[in-house]
Every structure is written in structure tokens, then in C-alpha cells.
Amino acid sequence: MRLLKKRKAQTEVLGVAIIVIMLVIGGVIMIRARLNKADETQLDSYEDPELAQSFLNVMMKTKTDINLIVQDIIQECYADRMDICRTGNTADCCDYAYLVMKNSLQETLGEWSKNYQLTVRKGGETKGKIQDISVNCDENSEQGQPGTYGIPFSPSTIIVTLRICKD
Amino acid sequence: MKTISKKNKKAQLQIMENVFVLIIIFIILIIAFVFAIGMQRSAQKDKLDELREIELIKKSQILNFFPELQCSDNNNLEPDCYDIYKIMSFKEKMEEDDAFLRYYKFLFGNIKITIHRYDPSPNTQNWFDPVLLFDNPKSEDLGIKIVRFPILLRNVIEEKDYFGVIEVGVYE
Question: Measured between alpha carbons, how far is residue A120 from residues B26, B53, B102 in Å?
Fold first, then answer.
């Protein structure tokens, strides 16, 4: 009888201890979930969808020191024109276009701590003539709406795509 | 007598047990209450940050409909494009005309607009001196929230478009 009563008391205390442990575990899980939650801010959801497209629209029309806009330089790259873009730092128009786009991206999106990927493809190309530019971003990364810019180049179109990836 | 004493001790033990249970429950409730207050404060701070960001978005939207600076062709405004000569003229007017400055202070509020030009050509690759177009800070310095967009800077006389960045900062 005595033993039974002792066991009853022990069971009660154990019950309270289990409740306390469950509450503590629940609290820890809630705190961790709150800390890990990376909410997209209002600013991100406003800025990012426009940023990729605005960037491409601006960059493609930018005039460079060889008096050609970037869009035309990309066309010359696919037309295998070497001479007009040959400078101290560049061998051909593909090189030139790559460096212009890389510099622009580094000095803007790079400085603003954005991760990005830029690709230039014609028709069904899997690998473009101009090297891809990527910083912590690939097709599998979480990303916003990509920006695309079409450059006419008969018989197909050269598509420049800029993706801005989330952290 | 012995039995009565034993029963008393038993009763005391049971009461003590109940008291301990109540104390533990009370402590748990206090912890939960403190935690809930903390969460509430954090949620309020997040809401305040969100409102500030919405304010920043509203102010930056003004620049999307700003014919005083934007490139135009037959009165059609071009998005993401700013006319260099309009910018210089606007800046001069800001410095010379108080009524002009007062009007835009009323329109924009406490913001700062800066325009940067960058040459990405491989052989030059440099940033030009920024142009501070408008600055209306608050009397107290509580910080500034900035949003940036790439823009074209058009020289209509030379018929050239340059790479630029417009920076809008809203004072907090």
C-alpha cells in the first residue's frame, strides 16, 4: 500500500517534469523558427522584379569608348567581327562585351550585395560565345523574375538573360 | 497518537506536493508571458520597418513620373532614362530659385536624390563625380534608407546614352 502511494507520487512528479520539458522544447523550436525565418521585405518584393529588367534595358543601350552600344557589340561578336573591338585589354567583340557587362554588374549589383547570373545565348545554344557571368547564382538557386533582352540577329535572336538570386 | 502524527505528516507532504506543482505552473506561466511580450515587441518593430520601406517605395515612385528630368520624345516619357541637360538645369534652378526649392521640398519631403554615372568600358572603367540633385534632411539625424536603380543618362546633343545609377534615400 505504502509502495503504491510512493509510486503514485513519483508518477505525478514525473508527469509535471514531462510537461515542463515539452514546453521548453516547444519554446526552443519556436524561437529557432523565428530566427531562421527570412521574410522577403516590401522593398525586396518591389525592387527585385524590376531590377533585372531595368538593368538589361540600360546596359544594352549604354555607349562605350569604341562608340558602339553594348547591344551592337554583342551582334558584332556573333558576326565574328574582331577588328572594331580590338583594344589593349580585349582581343575581339566577344571579349569586349563580356568585360563591359562584367564591370557594370560588379560595380552595381555586386556592390549592392546582390547575387546574379547573366547569360547570352543565340537560338538553341547551350553554351554562348560570350562567357556566362555568375556570382553565387545558378538555375537551381531561388530567384526573382529574370530580365530578358532580345537582340535581333538573323535568322534567330540573341537572348540576354539576367537572373537575380535570393541569398 | 502515533497514527495521528503519521497522518499529519502525510497530509503536510501532500500539501507541499501541491504547492510545488502550483509554483512550477506559475513559473511556467510567467516565462510564457515574458516570451509573448517579447514576441509582440519584435512584431511591432517589424511592422514599423515595413511602414518605413513602404514610405521609401512611395517616394522612389515619384521618379518614375518626373518629366522635369526624364528623357522625352514628342512628349512621350522614356522609362529608366534621364536627360543630362535637364538634370543640370534642374540642379541650377534648385540652387538659384528659392520658390522652386520650396515647391520640391513640399513635393518630395525629406529625401536625397543622387545621380551617378559609370563608364564600364574595359579601358576606362570609372565612376564620375556624383551629382547631388536634391537633399532635404530632417533636423535630427536618425539615419537614411536607400534604394538604387540603374538608369540611362542621355546626352541629346552628342546623341549618346551613358550608364548611370539613381539613388533615392529617405531620411528616417
Answer: 65, 34, 48
Segment holding A91, helix H or strand E: none
N-terminal to C-terminal alpha carbon distance within chain B: 79
Cα B56 versus chain centre, distance: 5
Whole-angstrom CA distances from B43 to A37, A45, B39, B48, B53 are 13, 19, 6, 9, 15
C-alpha to C-alpha distance for B18 and A16, rounded to whole angstroms: 11
The kind and range of the H/E element at A47 are: helix A42-60
From the list A43, A54, A104, which residue is nearest B120 (CB)? A104
Nearest to A90 among B32, B54, B122 (CB): B122
Per-residue pLDDT in tens (0 to 9) along chain B, 172 residues: 667 777 778 888 888 888 888 888 888 888 888 888 888 888 888 888 788 777 777 777 777 778 889 998 887 888 889 999 999 999 999 889 899 999 999 988 889 999 999 999 888 878 888 999 999 998 888 888 888 889 999 999 988 899 999 998 888 8
Looking at this protein, which amino acid is placed at residue A113?
Answer: S
Look at residues A140, A130, A119, A59 and name the one whose alpha carbon lies nearest to residue A96.
Answer: A130
Mutate to test the interface with B, among A64, A96, A111 (most CBs of B within 10 A): A64
B70 class by beta-carbon count within 10 Å (0-12 exposed, 13-18 middle, 19+ buried): buried
Comparing alpha-carbon positions, the chain A residue that sits nearest to B36 is A27
Cis peptide bond N-terminal to A155, omega within 30: yes
Chain A residues with CB inside 8 Å of B118's CB?
104, 107-108
- Residues A39 and A16: their CA atoms lie apart, in Å, by 37
DSSP state letter for A107: I
Cell numbers found for residue B153: 543618362
CA angle B138, B81, A149 (to 5 degrees): 125
**Whether the Cβ atoms of residue B82 and residue B152 lie closer than 8 Å to each other:** yes
